[in-house]
Amino acid sequence: MADDEHLPSKPTSEPSEVDAFLNKVRAIKPTHPGGGGRGRLVFALDATASRQPTWDRAMHTQADMFKETQALGGLDIQLVFYRGYGECKASKWYSQADQLLRAMTGVTCLAGRTQIAKVLKHARAETQKKKVNALVFVGDAMEEDPDELGHLAGELGLLGVPCFLFHEGGDPLVRNVFEQIAKLSGGACCAFDANAPQQLRDLLSAVAVYAAGGHKALSDFSARRGGVTKLLTSQVR
After folding, report:
1. Where are the domains of the chain?
2. Residue 28 has pLDDT above 80, yes or no
3. Among 140, 141, 138, which Cα is nearest to 200's?
4. How many Cα atoms are found within 13 Å in the side-chain-facing hemisphere of 196?
5. 0.85 exceeded by the pTM?
6. What superfamily would CATH give domain 38-233?
7. What is the CA radius of gyration of the chain?
8. What's the pLDDT at 63?
9. What's residue 29's pLDDT?
10. Percentage of the chain exceeding pLDDT 90
């Protein structure tokens, strides 16, 4: 792990960071077959006690993830969350926004420790059964062994499952580990402002588009929005 002096003092939402995040997504080696087909995205969230506001925002965001991928052949999303004392659950795969919304509305956040390793292991098991095109993780804490998380992230990278981590909060050590997971898996990490819901909405939509259609689809998405970066940074306080 990097020395403390090289760690960011706080998460930022500067234009340069959002630009860098989107550029990294575009630079990932495509894993989609030429024939298209439905993409598969594991949508994982920290559902410990502090996460309820972000969980509620994610419920209002998830419909856009499906909407943006309809023209690309569609997207199947599996919800994964952890909370409480060792509880980590995965839903079935959903192809419609209303199905995922019903699953999310039934979850209440509970105090507990992080279980990111379980999320990464689950994604590994899922893609070994049927290809998973991307893993999204939204959280603000990390209370586990960074080396184990790095090893699991590297395995996902070898399997072609990039991890996209969205970090809320100001803990630089957490951010450092999230960045390592992203790097080792071939994905990206980006801080987001909890007070700018449109930012999370657009970042998640961008990853969903990538999962459904790869690089070209993401480029088309950016062009259609008239500049994703400008749209994102306009929401930052």
Report:
1. 38-233
2. no
3. 138
4. 18
5. no
6. von Willebrand factor, type A domain (3.40.50.410)
7. 16
8. 84
9. 60
10. 44
